[in-house]
Design goal:
By secondary structure, the protein is α+β, with helices and mostly antiparallel strands. The chain has eight domains: 75 residues, no CATH class; 96 residues; 50 residues, no CATH class; 73 residues, no CATH class; 82 residues, no CATH class; 89 residues, Roll (SH3 type barrels); 72 residues, no CATH class; 113 residues, no CATH class. The protein contains 20 helices and 22 strands. Strands 14, 15, 16, 17, 20, 21 and 22 form a seven-stranded antiparallel sheet that branches. It has a five-stranded mixed sheet with strand order 3-4-2-1-5, with helices on one face. Strands 7-6-11-12-13 form a five-stranded antiparallel sheet.
């Protein structure tokens, strides 16, 4: 016995069918659908009157196929409140199902990824397949397994991403339905439908009219609750008058006329401009309903909501300007002006809080007030904008830092402790430690320990080891997750080096004990010579690291510039190093600070001076190259051309050793030549190394040449290659043979 039933709570469903009885084929031909959770049903039939025509047609077709069919229809509507509660519960269950499936897919992706990494970690870096060796078959099978696991990991990750998006979409859909502005539009639509039924059908539509009346009253009651709590108060004609300015989707328009349900403004296509392209006033106006308005301006004050507090328009414009600029944080544009603005946006935040220019964004976020503290948030945005505009005007960072106006009283959620951090591996990090940054893997590039990146720093809340980690040889298999107190998280290999202050140091920095009162002691500032000697002494800290190498390079460049000597041997310290007297030491520190600013980074060591891009002009080197230097330049040009021609034969080569040989040849080409021709040559060369090869090496070489050209024009010298040009080419040929 088959039963076709309909209620407003369950919709139209068919019960009593079994697999293979032929019922589904008949229902499918009549527009029915199937779900494992519901069974056979009619789409979009819940909370609506039954579609009797389709139900009768389906019942007749089933009876003709030899089935007994009964029909049970109940068109009693549910109250709107009950209907909306049921809708929200079903949405929550659907989102939970999607989230559960997404978690399973993500776990599978991580397991596949870990399996591929476990196989690859057992092979030495860059080991080729030995043709004819007894290990050839197992080596090839290992690569096949790696590829299979990687592909399955990507497929599972795509599936997890899709399911997560679905779960998120369910929540967004429910939030959109409950949005008060959407509710206002819904009420207006229901009222139009109600009037149409009364006008066209009269008493015959009394049931539908009563149902619409009940729904309208429900939504009006919801809006009244929001207005009573102050969460949402709708705009109305009593809030506006001619001459006001209204916010329509982020643009301000003058009010031309106030209507009963809307305001009339100049054409929206004009984006608030009073006149058209011909300079004449617009010949028409557009109407904007109350639910589409986002604010009002009158007499120099701005009102964001009808029940809000007015605040000055000039301050509101500054806040809006800064919010627009803040979108560039962490992004670098392609043109010079955009890159300059993005850099000044980051510098403005750091200068405003007294941080060094190399501080990470997490350190800036530690100063951010609570979003509910609107006054402090607005004052902070205005302060950021003021510093940004001074940077854009060309004012030096030192002058800005010395003359900043008082900032809002802000206590950071955490601060980095003073002193040098410990270098530890991820698996040695503990909750409560203070993470200062991540050491980039410079050792793989022949750069020692690598530079310290402070893009990921802050108090460590949790360290999650990879499930099922096993110690294999000298390495752990899988990724570990470090979670900060801010909620930010990042995956690392367990041997990834991090810069960490242990929990004891972090506690001393974040919660210092009040010091006993003592008599004031005159502060003794170190002399310039002492500061320069401290900077020299810092060269002994981890001499193989990239940071130390860069520090020595800047010291050497500063010495050559201050003494007016051509920097042919930059990178090796002069014989009479260090400089002796106070005046020369001060000049060396100023030159070093200018180099820091030119590199676009902050201090990487406490002994370094603050970056000052507008330091006093340094002596220019005007001596031309000698005959011997000209011969060396010719040899360097020939070698660089040979390097370029040789590299073109290997478009798929991504060996790091190979890339280093290419870079050394290019640096030889630039060594000692005039700035203008060298920069032009490098830019032309960079165009021949586009980013479309899809490999790290070629895109890195092109970017390196473009950066080098900018540095040459700015007067930043590059260390000459340590090997002779002929040796560079020999290294290149050796790298080619090793790669083959």
């Amino acid at each position: 016995m088959l039963t076709i039933s309909h209620t407003h709570a369950d919709g139209t469903t068919l019960n009593g069918s079994r697999k293979g009885d032929g019922v589904w084929e008949v229902c499918k031909a009549n527009g029915w659908a199937f779900s494992r959770n519901v069974g056979i049903y009619l789409r979009q039939s819940r909370d609506k009157d039954a579609n009797r025509a389709r139900i009768d047609r389906t019942a007749e077709a089933l009876r003709a196929a030899g089935h007994d069919v009964t029909v049970d229809i109940d068109n009693t509507p549910r109250p709107t409140a009950e209907r909306e509660t049921d809708r929200a519960e079903r949405a929550d269950r659907r989102a939970a199902r999607y989230a559960e499936r997404a978690g399973k897919a993500d776990a599978e992706s991580q397991a596949r990824r870990a399996a591929a990494d476990a196989i690859s970690d057992r092979m030495p870096f860059g080991e080729p397949i030995k043709i004819g060796h007894h290990s050839e078959r197992s080596h090839r099978r290992a690569f096949e397994k790696i590829h299979a696991h990687t592909e399955k990991s990507w497929e599972a990750a795509d599936k997890a991403r899709e399911l997560s998006d679905r779960a998120e979409a369910v929540g967004h859909n429910l939030a959109h339905r409950q949005d008060p502005r959407v509710t206002m539009r819904r009420i207006e639509r229901l009222e139009v439908e109600q009037r149409k039924l009364v006008r066209d059908y009269g008493e015959r539509a009394a049931g539908k009219v009563a149902r619409l009346t009940e729904e309208i009253e429900h939504w009006r009651a919801e809006l009244a609750k929001l207005a009573e709590s102050g969460e949402f108060v709708p705009w109305g004609p009593e809030h506006f008058r001619k001459g006001d300015a209204v916010n329509v989707r982020g643009t301000w328009y003058p009010v031309v006329r106030v209507n009963r349900k809307s305001v009339s403004v100049p054409p929206l296509i004009g984006l608030g401009r009073p006149n058209g392209a011909d300079g004449q006033p617009w010949s028409w106006t557009d109407t904007v309903p109350w639910d589409d308005l986002g604010g009002r301006r009158r007499d120099g004050m701005q009102l964001d909501t009808p029940n809000g507090e007015a605040w000055p328009v000039d301050l509101a414009q500054k806040v809006a300007r800064w919010e627009d600029l803040a979108r560039w944080i962490g992004r670098d544009g392609r043109d010079e002006e955009t890159r300059r603005e993005a850099l000044h946006v980051r510098w403005a935040q750091r200068l405003a809080h007294g941080l060094d220019l190399g501080a990470g964004q997490s350190e800036v976020q530690a100063f951010q007030p609570h979003p509910d503290d609107t006054d402090t948030c607005r004052a902070l945005a205005a302060a950021y904008l003021a510093v940004f505009e001074r940077l854009q005007a060309g004012e030096s960072t030192a002058d800005i830092a010395a003359s900043l106006p008082p900032m809002p009283e802000l206590t950071p959620a955490w601060v980095l402790p003073d002193g040098e951090p410990q270098r530890v591996q991820v698996r040695e990090v503990k909750p409560g430690d203070m993470l200062r940054g991540v050491y980039q893997m410079g050792g793989l590039l022949g750069c020692g320990d690598g530079m310290l990146s402070r893009s990921f720093c802050g108090p460590v809340a949790e360290v999650i080891p990879h499930e099922g980690d096993e110690y294999s040889g000298e390495r752990f298999v899988g990724y570990w997750v470090v979670v900060l107190s801010t909620g930010e998280r990042r995956e690392f290999k367990p041997w990834q080096p991090l810069a960490v202050h242990r929990a004891e140091q972090a506690a001393d920095a974040t919660a210092p004990e009040p010091a006993a009162e003592a008599e004031p002691v005159a502060e003794v500032k170190p002399t310039a010579a002492e500061r320069w000697q401290a900077l020299e002494a810092a060269n002994g800290d981890r001499p193989g690291s990239r940071a130390t190498q860069e520090r020595i390079r800047r010291q050497s460049v500063a010495w050559h510039r201050v003494h007016g000597v051509a920097d042919d041997h930059v990178g090796s310290l002069p014989a009479d190093y260090p400089g002796g007297d106070e005046e020369r030491a001060a000049a060396l520190l100023a030159a070093y600070a200018a180099l820091l600013a030119a590199d676009g980074i902050g201090r990487t060591h406490p002994a370094e001076p603050e970056p000052t891009p507008d330091a006093a002009p340094l002596p220019a080197v005007t001596a031309g190259p000698s005959a011997a230097e000209s011969d060396r330049h010719a040899v360097a040009l020939a070698v660089a051309e040979a390097v370029r021609a040789e590299a073109r034969n290997y478009p798929d080569q991504d060996s790091l050793i190979y890339t280093q040989a290419v870079r050394r040849g290019l640096h030889q080409r630039a060594s000692g030549m005039d700035a203008g021709p060298v920069a032009d040559a490098l830019r032309a060369e960079a165009e021949r190394w586009p980013d479309t090869h899809g490999t790290f090496s070629w895109s890195y070489v092109g970017a390196s040449m473009r950066r080098r050209a900018d540095e040459i024009v700015a007067g930043v010298s590059e260390p000459a290659a340590t090997a002779a040009p002929v040796n560079v080419f020999a290294d290149l040929l050796a790298a080619r043979q090793r790669a083959a």
